[in-house]
Amino acid sequence: MSKTQRYSSSTGPKPSFDPKNLPTGWQNYAIGGGAAFAVAVFLFSGKKSTERKELTPEDKFSKFTKPFDDGSSKKSAPAVATPITPIVEDDNSKPMRDKMAVFVRKMQKQIADAVDALEIESLWQAAKELGTEPKLCVRDEWIRAEGGKGLSCVLMDGNVFEKAGVLVSVVHGPASAALIKQMRARGKDGVLEESGVYKMFAAGCSMVIHPHNPNAPTAHLNYRYLELVKEGEEKPVAAWFGGGCDLTPSYLFEEDAIHFHQVIKDVCDAHDKEYYPKFKKWCDDYFYIPHRNEARGVGGIFFDDLVSENIYIFRKFIEKLSSQERGDHNEIFKFVQQCGLSFVDQYIPIMKKRWNTPFTPEMKQWQQLRRGRYVEFNLVHDRGTKFGLATPGARIESIMCSLPLTARWEYMHFPEEGSREAELVKVLKTPKDWAV
Amino acid sequence: MSKTQRYSSSTGPKPSFDPKNLPTGWQNYAIGGGAAFAVAVFLFSGKKSTERKELTPEDKFSKFTKPFDDGSSKKSAPAVATPITPIVEDDNSKPMRDKMAVFVRKMQKQIADAVDALEIESLWQAAKELGTEPKLCVRDEWIRAEGGKGLSCVLMDGNVFEKAGVLVSVVHGPASAALIKQMRARGKDGVLEESGVYKMFAAGCSMVIHPHNPNAPTAHLNYRYLELVKEGEEKPVAAWFGGGCDLTPSYLFEEDAIHFHQVIKDVCDAHDKEYYPKFKKWCDDYFYIPHRNEARGVGGIFFDDLVSENIYIFRKFIEKLSSQERGDHNEIFKFVQQCGLSFVDQYIPIMKKRWNTPFTPEMKQWQQLRRGRYVEFNLVHDRGTKFGLATPGARIESIMCSLPLTARWEYMHFPEEGSREAELVKVLKTPKDWAV
């Protein structure tokens, strides 16, 4: 498998970020990183506007160039504006919580805009001829009673996507007994005093995208930063990054799996050659459905407890990081940023190849059965979902947003030997090395 | 609410049981109760025939009278034959495991036949005019490597039913560490020696029926008998019954909930006036989805650890049973039999009223969302599912058979105030007393 199988990014949107192009209300996030406490970043300057400003049909189709023709768009394309240039993230004088809070919103916007752009692109002809309007991601904001808030961008039953949810949450408050228990179980005993009272801070962006076309794969992403602070203190006793991305096809296109893995491997390799092999295996191990004896999909990367040495080393393998990275929290943050911002390059080129390819009703039915497996993993095994459901006051709509719009369960359905369906299952039972 | 709201059973099929009317292969079950060990009951006399004998279209429509017109069927109706008369179940000289093994098959057949009969009835006109053939329950048999076997009756995508699964399993073998741990957690420490090695025996029938029509409710049933026997001994150290039935509508018809509850209340009352209130509340408590803050449905009954005094009293409330019942295992078995055999009376009259009433696409969509909640309960909370998924070698196809054929999840879907959908949710948040 040669590296040339990675899709050229020249077919993708040409991002050009200018905070002035952000919709009303969003500029705050791009420039609000100086707030003393991270949650302040998410206070709209007095406004309770939670819906994106309604676009007129003319807006929708005149302000966006057709972005995927040849990559030579002349007009600026705010729907796919990609804030590559960091604003506050490079400022090492700012607390990490503030920088991560700003970053997850930037990542969210980049992905939601790419989803919107594909919906628009897919209706380009119909829109010109029939005046059809695309469905775009709907934003809604929520506030957590115990502290913090979040912003969800969700598209349902679009032309390309069955369901796409890109969720940001930046929350803080007392660390619940359940959270502390989970932290102890994960090896953070060393920094948690028996009688200590702790506060937590968490900023993350999580995303699940389920396309309509059974040839097009589902994608998942999650990048998060957590802190535990002892009551009355300022400096966290523990702070770490976690996250990853993975791909779940209903039909296997090897070149899609290779492309998805190759993009993220390149990001990993630029930081440490040991990252990708470790995080790829971690992903295969995590997204495994024991009761079905198969992986959820063709994987990607997964990591947790990624920390710098000056806080605490939780996992053995962290010790193998270069001393530079172990000593520098900002270096890990840079890695997480580059992972998050590379998702559009990982996934959108695949979608552009697959969203409109022909399929049969039988293929759609197979996709629905695979959706059923996705639901099984998320509800039975996913640690995040389990933890969320067990947490009083957790936002159930956000937790369940990862589930597909539709799913199906048939009794005793086994694909015919030698079929394309059986080919997928075979790969799910024996993870492959996709990237070179 | 008067008792007259219970639907008259005269509109239902008139059962008349004769073992000679059973399909080939089934007679073994009706007469095989004398086997020394229960699993022997399930050995087909040398045959590996697992499929019901294929009926010709003429068979399908000439051998069945149209059963639901006026209840005055002249011909015998094997498809709805209801083996009310016990064959071996009354013989107190037989071990309970043998009697229960025979009974669960009888119950399974009664329900599967009623499901088939409704599919046939629903296509009566079409069949006469167009020669359409109904889909009937497909039987498949499985063998458990560690000991025992099962028979599944499953219908998918019929005319009336989206999915109907009636599953019997009669299994035995070494009691796993997980099972023993669960038994200890449930208070059976008193009879389990620290270093003891135990065998288990379990016979049960479980059923979930999901109809197509959103006006028609989903129904669930499970009745089971378990034994723990110390290695090398004959007499069980613990033996108990568990089970129940419950109804899950997408749209509330109060008279349906009343009828379903009234039938099972009458069965309970005939044994002990304290049964129904206790078991009704137990059901409301058990089929509750904490993360949605609502019940799965409008309830029914649920009980567990139902035992006679001479074995072991596990639960406080059992002590309140009359001394006659506490001293007589057979009395409890009779109660379980009457519960199981009354299901057809509980549910089929409701189905006959609802399966063909008009509905809109919006109603179908609401039903699909309710199916999603059903999946959430079963995968996240149901103890049986959790235990099954955690058990190595468990039969995954049987465990997942309870899931609907199709389900749906929408982000932030809340029914409009005052709507029929909101009316259902209101009742699910505050369980009602349905029976008088």
From TrEMBL, chains A, B:
<keyword id="KW-0350">Heme biosynthesis</keyword>
<feature type="compositionally biased region" description="Basic and acidic residues">
    <location>
        <begin position="49"/>
        <end position="73"/>
    </location>
</feature>
<dbReference type="InterPro" id="IPR018375">
    <property type="entry name" value="Coprogen_oxidase_CS"/>
</dbReference>
<feature type="region of interest" description="Disordered">
    <location>
        <begin position="49"/>
        <end position="77"/>
    </location>
</feature>
<comment type="pathway">
    <text>Porphyrin-containing compound metabolism; protoporphyrin-IX biosynthesis; protoporphyrinogen-IX from coproporphyrinogen-III (O2 route): step 1/1.</text>
</comment>
<dbReference type="InterPro" id="IPR036406">
    <property type="entry name" value="Coprogen_oxidase_aer_sf"/>
</dbReference>
<dbReference type="GO" id="GO:0005737">
    <property type="term" value="C:cytoplasm"/>
</dbReference>
<dbReference type="InterPro" id="IPR001260">
    <property type="entry name" value="Coprogen_oxidase_aer"/>
</dbReference>
<feature type="compositionally biased region" description="Polar residues">
    <location>
        <begin position="1"/>
        <end position="13"/>
    </location>
</feature>
<keyword id="KW-0627">Porphyrin biosynthesis</keyword>
<feature type="region of interest" description="Disordered">
    <location>
        <begin position="1"/>
        <end position="24"/>
    </location>
</feature>
<dbReference type="GO" id="GO:0006782">
    <property type="term" value="P:protoporphyrinogen IX biosynthetic process"/>
</dbReference>
<dbReference type="Pfam" id="PF01218">
    <property type="entry name" value="Coprogen_oxidas"/>
</dbReference>
<comment type="subunit">
    <text>Homodimer.</text>
</comment>
<comment type="similarity">
    <text>Belongs to the aerobic coproporphyrinogen-III oxidase family.</text>
</comment>
<keyword id="KW-0560">Oxidoreductase</keyword>
<protein>
    <recommendedName>
        <fullName>coproporphyrinogen oxidase</fullName>
        <ecNumber>1.3.3.3</ecNumber>
    </recommendedName>
</protein>
<dbReference type="GO" id="GO:0004109">
    <property type="term" value="F:coproporphyrinogen oxidase activity"/>
</dbReference>
